[in-house]
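Sync notes, pocket subgroup
Present: LS, DG
LS reminded everyone that the earlier model was apo-only. Rerun requested with flavin mononucleotide included. Inputs:
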Amino acid sequence: MILGISGSPRPKGITAHAVKKILEDCEGETKYISLAGKHIGGCISCLGCTKDNQCKVNDDFPKIAQAMVEAEAIVFGIPNYYDVPNGLSHCLLERCFCFRHQSAFLLKDKPAIIFSTGYSADEENSQVLKIVDHFMVMNKMPVVSKFLVGAFSQCYTCKYSKDCVDGNVVKNNGIVDKITPDMLPPRFDEQPESIIKCENAAHAINATI
Ligand SMILES: Cc1cc2nc3c(=O)[nH]c(=O)nc-3n(C[C@H](O)[C@H](O)[C@H](O)COP(=O)(O)O)c2cc1C
């Protein structure tokens, strides 16, 4: 089974669309998990996992952990918040501490696709990709594809943004009376480059498992 995890708190956002697109193009059984609405805190360093590599914290993580261990490969879609992974995704990655004790490394050798959504397009210098990549290294997971997918800035749906000098609407368009459709950043299905990246990522997974 190939597992796709959308780390966005928005269930129908661009991260969700891109994860689903990759899973559609993967061969064999797939499973999709959205972190939207899930309660996942950071690792509390209780060390309850050191004996059996199972997290004992009673929130939504242990069930997801089980799916991660069962998966042959994992797709991680991670929104960029302040140039770092968003909190929910970061908590999930931190909790993967439970998999590594006594040389178990339960995620070892599972191929990973990692992508980040955001309005920043600098793929080479993406801090989010670097951070998520580091978590993969710590779990001994080979990254077979790593890329950015374009996403909107919240300013485009904020009712105060037309003349907010600190926001992205004014930064990109100057002060406006109205946000018109031509100003809106592209949706996932309007991004041919991102769609191709997702297709290539799925092919990379298909070639490795
Ligand atoms: C609190 C917050 C901070 C954000 N910071 C950034 C940022 O620093 N750089 C960026 O490119 N996008 C930033 N964004 C935009 C999100 O990355 C973007 O809306 C998100 O990836 C969209 O994914 P979704 O549609 O799946 O929710 C931020 C969004 C929020 C809510």
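DG: The first helix runs from residue 14 to 25.
LS: The domain at 2-154+186-208 is CATH 3.40.50.360 (Rossmann fold).
Action: DG to write up.
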